[in-house]
Design brief:
Elements: H1 2-17, H2 19-23, H3 31-59, H4 61-81, H5 85-113, H6 119-145, H7 151-171, H8 184-207, H9 212-234, H10 248-278, H11 283-289, H12 291-311, H13 313-331, H14 340-367, H15 374-407, H16 410-416, H17 421-427, H18 433-479
Helix pairs in contact: 1-5, 1-6, 1-7, 3-4, 3-5, 3-8, 3-15, 4-5, 4-7, 6-11, 6-12, 8-9, 8-15, 10-11, 10-13, 10-14, 10-15, 10-18, 12-13, 12-14, 13-14, 13-18, 15-18
Length: 480
C-alpha cells in the first residue's frame, strides 16, 4: 500500500525533471503545453480523489485499487508511446484518474487489514509516504532520465504499477461494501470548473489576457463553480458539502493546505529547469538537488506535534508560513552564479516550513470534523493538496513565461517570438545563449517572488482566522 502512494505521488515530482527534455523534443511544445503536461495529471488526481474513495466504499476498496493501478499503467504506457502531444496529454489524464483511485483506497485497505491498536501508527506511516514519494520521484526520475529520453520515465511506471496490482490481488483483504452515493454530476462539474480555471491562468501569457479563450476560461470557471455549489447543496450524498466550510477552523486549514502545496509544487516545477538551464546540472544531479527541501519533512515531522503543544497551534502555523514564504523569497534572490550551498540553504528553510505546516494543518482539518466524517476530512486533505499543486504549477508557469519573454533582448523577441528556453536556445546562436539563460533566471526570480508573496499573504489570512476562531471558541466555553 505504501509503495502505491510513493508511485502516484512520485510521478508528480518526477515529471518536472523531464521539462527541459520535453521542451527540446521534436514537438517543440509551447510554454502553456509544458504546464499542461504537468497539470493534466495533477488536476484529474485532485478532482477525483474523493470520488475514488467513494467508489471504493461502494464497489470494494480492493477492486477499485486494482482498477486504479490498471488505469495508471495504461495511462503511463500511452504517455510513453504517444506519437503526438494530444495523446501524451490523454495519457496523463488517464494516469491521473488511476492515481485518484489508488491513493484513498490504499489507506482504506490498510485500515481494514490492521487491528485497532495499530491504526494510529499505520496512518502515520502511510502519511509519511507522501514525503518519501517526493524524494523517490526526484531521485528515481533523475536516474531514469539520465538515459536521455523522457519516454523512459513513463515506461518505467508501467511494470511497477502492474507488479503492485499483482501484489494487491494476492495479499490485500476484501472489505465490506457500503451503499454510498457517488455524485457523478458534482464530480463532472468540479473537473470542468477546475480545468476552465487552469485554461484561464495557463493560456494568458501566449494568447493574451484579453483573448476570448482566457476570458472565457475564467468566466466558465466562475459559472461552473457556482453551479457545482448549488448542486452540492441539493444532492443527498454530495461529493464535498460546501456547508462544511462554514466551520472557520476547517476553512482556514483547507486554505492553508492549498497555499503550502501551491508554493511547494511551484518550486518543484521551476527547480528542475533552473538547475539544468541556469546552473548546468545534469538530470540526475538535478533530481538529487531538491533533496534539502525534503530532509526536514522526513526527519522532523514526528516532532511537530510536541512543538505545537508547547508554543500553541497559532504560533506553529505562523512559523510554518514564515519559513515557507521566506524560503521562497530567499530562492528568488539566487542566480546562476549563486553556489549550490546557498541555494540548498533556502531549500532547507522552505522544507522546515512545509514540515511545520503539514501535520499541523492536517490535524486542524481532522480535528474540526466529528469522527463519523473522518473519511471526508481525509478526502478534503488530498483534494486541497493536489489542487494547490496544480494551481502552483499553473501560476509559476504563467509568471515565468511572461517575465522570460519580456526579459529577452528585443531582437530575439522580434525575430523568433520564443516562449520557452528551448525555443529561444534553438533559434539563437550559441554565442548569445547567455542572454537567453539570463532572461530565464530573471523570469524564475520574478515568479518565485510572486509565489512567495502569495503564500505569505494567504498564510496571514489563515493565521488571523485561526486566531479569531479559537478566541470565539474560548469565549463560548467561558460563557458556558
Amino acid at each position: 500500500m505504501c509503495a502505491g502512494v510513493v508511485l502516484v505521488v512520485g510521478m508528480v515530482a518526477a515529471v518536472n525533471l523531464a521539462i527541459p527534455m520535453l521542451a527540446a523534443s521534436e514537438w517543440h511544445p509551447s510554454a502553456s503545453v509544458m504546464v499542461w503536461i504537468v497539470d493534466t495529471y495533477v488536476i484529474f488526481f485532485a478532482c477525483l480523489v474523493i470520488p475514488g474513495g467513494a467508489a471504493g466504499d461502494r464497489f470494494g476498496h480492493k477492486g477499485v485499487l486494482l482498477a486504479g493501478l490498471g488505469l495508471f499503467a495504461t495511462g503511463a504506457l500511452l504517455s510513453a508511446t504517444a506519437p503526438n502531444l494530444a495523446l501524451l496529454l490523454a495519457g496523463r489524464a488517464i494516469t491521473g484518474v488511476g492515481a485518484a483511485a489508488v491513493l484513498p483506497n490504499t489507506l482504506a485497505v490498510l485500515l481494514h487489514a490492521v487491528p485497532a491498536e495499530r491504526k494510529g501508527p499505520t496512518i502515520a506511516i502511510w502519511a509519511s509516504m507522501t514525503g518519501i514519494g517526493g524524494v523517490a520521484g526526484n531521485v528515481g526520475g533523475g536516474a531514469l532520465l539520465a538515459g536521455g529520453s523522457w519516454r523512459v520515465l513513463f515506461a518505467a511506471a508501467v511494470p511497477v504499477a502492474l507488479l503492485l496490482a499483482v501484489l494487491v490481488a494476492r495479499v490485500a483483504p476484501v472489505s465490506a461494501r457500503h451503499n454510498r452515493g457517488l455524485d457523478p454530476l458534482g464530480t463532472l462539474l468540479l473537473v470542468a470548473a477546475s480545468l476552465a480555471l487552469l485554461i484561464g491562468i495557463v493560456e494568458g501569457p501566449e494568447r493574451g489576457w484579453g483573448s476570448a479563450i482566457v476570458i472565457g476560461g475564467f468566466a466558465c470557471s466562475a459559472v461552473l463553480f457556482t453551479v457545482w455549489t448549488l448542486v452540492e447543496l441539493k444532492v443527498e450524498h454530495p461529493l464535498l458539502d460546501p456547508r462544511l466550510f462554514r466551520l472557520p477552523a476547517l476553512r482556514s486549514a483547507s486554505l492553508g493546505m492549498t497555499a503550502v502545496f501551491f508554493g511547494m509544487f511551484a518550486l518543484f516545477y521551476v527547480n528542475a529547469s533552473f538547475l539544468q538551464y541556469g546552473k548546468g546540472f545534469g538530470v540526475l544531479r538535478t533530481g538529487l538537488g531538491i533533496i534539502p527541501v525534503t530532509v526536514p519533512i522526513i526527519l522532523g515531522a514526528r516532532h511537530v506535534g510536541h512543538l505545537a503543544r508547547r508554543v500553541g497551534l497559532n504560533a506553529t502555523i505562523a512559523l510554518a508560513f514564515a519559513f515557507v514564504g521566506c524560503g521562497l523569497l530567499g530562492l528568488s534572490t539566487t542566480d546562476a552564479q549563486t553556489p549550490y550551498v546557498g541555494y540548498a540553504a533556502w531549500l532547507l528553510v522552505t522544507g522546515v516550513g512545509v514540515t511545520l505546516a503539514l501535520p499541523t494543518l492536517s490535524g486542524a482539518i481532522a480535528g474540526s470534523l466529528p469522527p463519523a466524517q473522518a473519511g471526508v476530512g481525509a478526502g478534503l486533505q488530498a483534494t486541497t493538496r493536489e489542487f494547490g499543486s496544480a494551481l502552483g504549477v499553473a501560476v509559476m508557469g504563467t509568471v515565468l513565461t511572461a517575465r522570460f519573454v519580456d526579459a529577452l533582448p528585443a531582437d530575439i523577441r522580434a525575430d523568433h517570438d520564443p516562449h520557452t528556453v528551448a525555443q529561444a536556445l534553438a533559434a539563437t546562436p550559441a554565442a548569445r545563449s547567455h542572454d537567453v539563460i539570463t532572461a530565464f533566471v530573471s523570469g524564475t526570480q520574478a515568479a518565485l517572488r510572486v509565489i512567495a508573496v502569495t503564500v505569505l499573504v494567504v498564510g496571514l489570512l489563515v493565521f488571523v482566522e485561526s486566531l479569531l476562531s479559537r478566541r470565539r471558541e474560548a469565549g463560548r466555553g467561558g460563557r458556558s
